[in-house]
Prior knowledge:
five-stranded mixed beta sheet, mainly alpha, transmembrane, 9 strands, 2 domains, globular, about 5% strand, two-stranded antiparallel ribbon, membrane
Amino acid sequence: MRRLVDRVYGLSTVALPLVAVIGIVAPLVLGLTNLAILGLYFAVPMIAAPALVRAIGDERGSSTAAGRRIPRVDWRVWSVTFHLLLAGLVVVLSATAVRPLLFYAGVAVAYLLCFLLITTSRPTRGRHAIGLYHLVVLAALVIFSVTLNYDLFVGHGDLMTHIAMARSILETGELSSLLPEYEAFQLWHVYTAVSTQLSGGWLPVHTTMYLLSGGIFAAAVGLMYGLARRVYPNETASLLSCLVLISFPLYLFYGMYSIPRSVTSILFIALVLALVDRPTGNMRILTVLLVAAIVVYHPASIPFVLAILLLFAALEFSIASPIRAADNYVLSVGVLITATYWLYNAQFIVERLVDTMVASFLGSTPGSGQSGDVLAAPWAQAANFVPYAFALLLVLVGFLFWHRRLATSGEADAMADVAEPGVDVRSSRRVPLFTSLGLLTVALIPLAFPGPTLLLDSLAGINISRFGHYSIMFVALLGGFGLYELFDRGGVAVFLALLVLTSGLGFTAVSNDFTASDNPVVERPFYTFYLTDNEVQSFEAVGAGYDGEVGADRLSCRYLEELQGSSCSVVNAGGEGDLFAGYDAVLIREGELADRPLQFSEYVEKESIDESELADRNRVYDSNEVALYG
């Protein structure tokens, strides 16, 4: 394995473009054109990364040369510009009902300013703190521009259940029993309820939840910096890793999606940080506490965490790492705490895992159906995958540059070339640690990036995409190193190209349909992630004024059932005959339907709804955005 690692650079520069070409040509030969289109966002970085590394990889010792070619600028210039821009963006948010493209453009400039501050500022004692401050503020701006700007952000819909449970705890003073499957992890709901009480009732429960989640994800930028600094001793590269972190759409979305699973993503960053630090007694205790926190906050997350740690341990063992971060201690602790908690407080998870494995082996596991929806609009989906393509490019560039260093300099000199002046790392554990983390990141790419995960979900019937929630820090770690290597090795031309890349990464990260379903640059045929005030008031009016069962789309039903206690069924769109036959009352979100299909049992476009069906019913409620037909 050690010899194979030494040859990774040479093998990868050939294998990556070859796999990319096969990945596009094979679907075309099989007549799967949509799949080939979707695969472009994977193929382009796989071809471009080796080409970039070969083009500028011969520059050696370029840090000093680059410093002479790229002028140093006082950090206050960038900071003042950043804060003026920030004030302007807040004004734009206040003056517009829906975030316009101008806002996304302004945020892209803010990302660019952070990149300039990190790479061109003169070295000062508190430079890292200054950089982290700007990155934290930028992350908070992007997250809160959605959750605190719109009436009710609901994401994929699960958030409404968690809001209902937190409300129940606040009103009754007892743990909620609204949904048995969620009774095993109510720590997040208790945290939200207590925080709402501390506000004196001034903040609604859902707003408290948004503030807590957004604040945690913004503050986690500091955790990412600590992780990066312990893996490779370079302040600029570590700050660039933080920039890549807040440019990853999945990170931004889960900062908005204020559910227990979101918090466990941040706890896992803290756990990995504890593992890569010195294995002292205090760190061992902290490891136990963090593993326990992940299990208690969201018991269904720990299998994915343990799987990643097991793969990490296997890679460290394979390359004969002298000091292993993912050792038998953390694996044993993770398995012990998980088994104990599951058996005593989360038996439903064990039952579900058994049922899933039995169904998978018997071949009766139903697919998620998501892959079909994605492939139905491949160009729109591929356009929204552009920020992931940027991130993948940086990850592969970082991976290739690191193994190029290993191949040409050897282990002793590889990290020394990256380290800042005066830092002796030749005997450090960081070389094998960064190598194993790089291999782990590349191994997780099919599980961490969307597209492949949707197809795996469909085939396995298991939510494979959950691995992406716990792989973000690895993507940021290696992607930040790739960005640093491009900056460090290139001259003025490469630097100017990086200005375009970072601003493009920032723009696409905040304007894609995963993080900006309010007004995406390219709209996918999926639902909007927030409900308007008109819709919320309409649901409350319908819930209070109608006692029977209502047929509606999935998001409407979740609100009516979980926040109103009403009876609602998702309209079955896959049957024969009239779409709304068999429903005494039908609720239509007409405002949403004008822009996007409604998600009944499957997505239904406005043109596919027979207006005569609704014309034969009485329109008993109408708010211009929501209508109830009796």
